[in-house]
Amino acid sequence: MLSSTAYGQNREEFTKNYEPIKEQLQNWDPVRGDWLASSMESIAFSEPIPGRPFPESFTPHQMFSMVPKNTRQMISNISTNQPSSENSSQWNSISRFASAATCSPTSGRSYGDPHLVSFDGERFSFQTVGEFVMAKSASQNMEVQVRQEARGNDFSLNTGVAMNVGGDRLAIYSKSYPDADYSTPVRLNGLSVNMTGKTYFLPHGGTIKKSNGTYTVYFPSGEVVTTKIRGNGGSNFMDVSVQVSPCVTNDYQGLLGNANGSQRDDFNVPGRISPPVSVFGSDDSYFKRERQAYIAKDFADVHRVTQMTSLFDYSPGSSTLSYTDRSYPRVYRDLSDLSNSRVERARRRCRDMGVFAGDMNGCVYDNAYLNIPPSRPPVVSNPCDGVVLRPITASTDPPVNVNPTSPRPPKPNPVPTDKPIKDRVENNTTPQTITNGGENSKSTDSKPSTSISTPRTTQSRPKPSVQKPRPTTPRPKPTVVRPRPTPKPRSTPKPRPPIPKTSGGKRIGG
């Protein structure tokens, strides 16, 4: 281990030789370029990157892809032409970072009752139980591990993925949570992360984006991991896709192969070469079962994680051995074990869902045996597409792009510290709190309320309030309303007696 003095001298030497790269990036963009130069140096030394003083939510790799091509090439030349020194590993990291922007990405994935597609296009089934390395880079601080749990006696499903994202340990679970927090499947360095915004920033430069049940993790070095949580019969599982930029030959290893462009060596293990025929590439059922047994035993054990290398979180009393069962699969299932009608029914469903020809057999297998809906390869979007970088000057004091759940720290207020914290708590002092300032927040002051409430350390005596006499207004005299006399009722005239008539109709008496 280097002493602090030797480390300081090596860092000083690196900083001096790194100055031309920093100047190139600052000439491109004073604000973004300075952040990118500092971030690249932090990545080389496995340190957290600085905050983003611009509106874009880019990783360092994505921001570097926005730099003009000639500037990127000049930076690559500077990093590769450095003389051999104690900082060789840091310069190799800078060189690898610069070349990743020009490499064509390639993808591999694990889906359904796990069917795997390697970086070089090899397809195989992997019905095993345990935790395995999917992909690991020898030149970058990058690794992806997957957890597979049993489903009955014959099948298994992906239930968790754990990653080393440039120095941050990130895990996503579909079941078997390591703690009692079921509100979010994401754990960062062992702590729960609630995705309240579109993007979550990782300390060492990576980002997480969430869309429905899909989590996309962008690595600071350029890799991308897409995790889609799915449900089947009340038991959640996930599909996992990994995209890498194979700039260095044989830089990657794991279940998804070495990304060297050849399928023939994707299953190589020390002392034995696997057959080059894919799982579904032969009609010989015996041959396919032998191949499946080789993959589930010899090949799987090479890539199993140990407790020392595991990136997963575990509940008290459990470990990677709690998720390991080398007896799986107890029975090797094949499409030839199913009736033709059942196979054709599943094939029609997969075809109607637009499944590609290469994924058809895996889709039919999952649909016919476990009734798992078809799954298409994810489309990895590039956050840089269509983005126009507008000039930013340091004098404009641009906002720092931070996580919604991590508000910017408030300005420190002078707080009396004449009493210990214990005494202040016992005296019912109010701690410093952060509120959202929304509609539900109330203010007892006439001034606009702030998001920070200053703690009180002493109980001040309230000022006596002087009550002013109220102005007296003479009351108006009430108006006396005298009742009107009730009028006497009118007398009804007596009816006149009828006048008798004669028989001739004449009146008597004229």
Short recap of the structure:
23% of the residues lie in helices and 18% in strands. It is of the alpha+beta class. Among the domains are: 10-100, no CATH class; 106-337, no CATH class.
Order of helices and strands: HHHHHEEEEEEEEEEEEEEEHHHHEE
Name the poorly predicted regions: 406-466, 499-510
Strand content: 15-25%
Per DSSP, the total helix count is 9
Mean pLDDT: 78
Structural class, from secondary structure content?
alpha+beta
Overall geometry? elongated
If you compute it from the alpha carbons, what radius of gyration comes out, rounded to the nearest whole angstrom?
Answer: 39 Å
**Strand arrangement, largest sheet?**
3-2-1-14-13-12-11-10
Helical content (DSSP H or I, runs of 4+)? 10-25%
Main pleated-sheet profile: 8 strands, antiparallel
The span between the termini is 157 Å
Q: How many β-strand stretches? A: 17
Task: Name its key features.
alpha+beta, eight-stranded antiparallel sheet, seven-stranded antiparallel sheet, 9 helices
How would you portray this structure in words?
This protein is α+β, with helices and mostly antiparallel strands and 510 residues long. Among the domains are: 10-100, no CATH class; 106-337, no CATH class. The chain has nine helices and 17 strands. Helix 1 packs antiparallel against helix 4, helix 2 (30-44) crosses helix 5 (88-100) and helix 7 packs across helix 8 (360-370). The longest helix has 25 residues, at 4-28. Mean pLDDT is 78; it is low at 406-466 and 499-510.
